[in-house]
Request: fold
Amino acid sequence: MAGALADPTLELHDADGAIVESNDNWKDTEECLIEGTGLPPQDDLESAMIVTLPTAAYTAIVAGKNGLTGVALVEVYRLP
Reply:
């Protein structure tokens, strides 16, 4: 992707703004679980998380590590 954010961080916030989960570099935390989905990110610097959530409103915030800027894409999957 042209202009892709080189080293994104990801935060998931609940409706009150509290951080539910955060990630920087997906292999640092849940590598086995994420690989087991068959949907691992292609780049080790990408962010990903597996979270079981009750039905509610949530906000995903993607930012560039150390102030980097660029284009980011957030994908959400319902896993079995």
Summary: Residues 31-36 form the longest helix (6 residues).
